[in-house]
Amino acid sequence: MGEKDIAERVLADYNDVFSDIINVLLFHGERRVKEDSLVTGSPISQYKADDSRLHEQERDVSKYWSEGKVQFALFGLEHQTKIDKNMPLRIISYDGAAYRSMLLKKTAPVPVVTIVLYFGTDIKWENHLALSEEIDIPDELVSYVNDYRIHVVNVAWLPEETIEKFQSDFGIVADFFRRKRIDPKNVGNNKKIIKHVDEMLKLLSVLTKDERYYDQYIKREKKKEGLTMCEVLDSYIDRGIKQGIEKGKEQGKEQGIKQGIEQGIEQGIEQVAIKMLEKDMSDEEILSLTGLSVERLEKLKGANLRC
Fold first, then answer.
1. By the 8 A CB rule, do 155 and 177 touch?
2. What digits encode the pLDDT tens for the residues 133-142?
3. Residues 241, 269: contact at Cβ < 8 Å?
4. What residues form DSSP beta bridges with 212?
5. Which residues contact 187 (CB under 8 A, 6 or more apart)?
6. Strands in the chain per DSSP E
7. pLDDT greater than 50 at residue 145
8. How far apart are CA 144 and CA 153, in angstroms?
9. So what's the pLDDT on residue 178?
10. Do 112 and 151 contact (CB within 8 A), yes or no?
11. Residue 9 three-state SS
């Protein structure tokens, strides 16, 4: 199992996060699904391919919604950072395996509902939402082929009023990606307290391919309480500037404290920009967060400073 899959599963596997996602996206914020009514289902199912061998397929997270001995539904969550045109085929296999499991166990079948959480910020997922979009169906067979539609949530495009309905850490995650799409310089401007600090910052690190979020958590000695996204990002920028100031003080021994510190701060900001370039952050994000000029950023990019 890859690091990305583990990080995604750990946060969403918390019942408070999972139920919150379902309640907001399916029930418009009404607290229909309670934390204690969720039971984790097996994410792994098996199928037999053309080679007659058994293979395994794995969902990101799945949970049964039950009240007492009565089961209402099986919910599945899938995380995507890129648009996958084969997603309808994948969801069919996941849902079909779930129904087959119910059949084999001779239990009363319940609805299977799968939601795809898409975290992309450049392109909205508006196509590849149905089986009919992915296969060519002869006109004569159209009435005989059952179409299969999937439910994709464009997290970065969720309205602000919808994001405000989230009560768990997922609201902070959704707000982060919405800001990342609309206004990257304010991406961390969220003062809500993070509950599952370790898991949420790991998730952001793998979804954005930017380790600075989890790195700051480690450097803050794994602060468990009171941490916000504002603190996470502020500490990242501050660290670069402090390093620059220290270098400036050293230079100041020879060329004057004031001049050395000014140069050190500039170097510190440039170090931050270089790190951002290494993480493939966009020019817009780098310029907004560091305050560098376009000309200076271009010089850094042309100086072969990337790893």
1. yes
2. 999 999 999 9
3. yes
4. none
5. 176, 179, 180, 233, 285
6. 38-40, 44-48, 54-58, 61-67, 70-80, 112-118, 151-154
7. yes
8. 29
9. 94
10. no
11. helix
What distance in Å separates the CA atoms of residue 87 and residue 172, rounded to the nearest whole number?
26
pLDDT grade for 17, boundaries at 50, 70 and 90: very high
Residue 298: beta bridge partners? none
Strand partners, 48: 54
* 50 touches 56 (CB < 8 A): no
Q: What is the DSSP letter of 13?
A: T
| Cβ contact 263:159 at 8 Å | no
How far apart are alpha carbons 213 and 174 in whole angstroms? 15
Cα dihedral sign for 136, 138, 143, 144? negative
Q: What b/e string do you get for 64-84 counting C-beta neighbours within 10 Å, with b at 16 or more?
A: bbbeeeebeebbbbbbbbeeb
8 Å CB contact between 12 and 60:
yes
Q: 305 pLDDT band (50/70/90 cuts)?
A: very low
- For the sheet containing 112-118, what is the strand order? 38-40, 61-67, 70-80, 112-118, 151-154
Q: Are 197 and 217 in contact (CB under 8 A)?
A: yes
pLDDT tens string 25-44: 999 999 999 999 999 886 55
pLDDT in tens, 150-168: 999 999 999 999 999 999 9
59 class by beta-carbon count within 10 Å (0-12 exposed, 13-18 middle, 19+ buried): buried
Sign of the CA dihedral 42, 81, 10, 155? Answer: negative
Rounded Cα distance between 271 and 248, Å, is 13
pLDDT of residue 203: 86
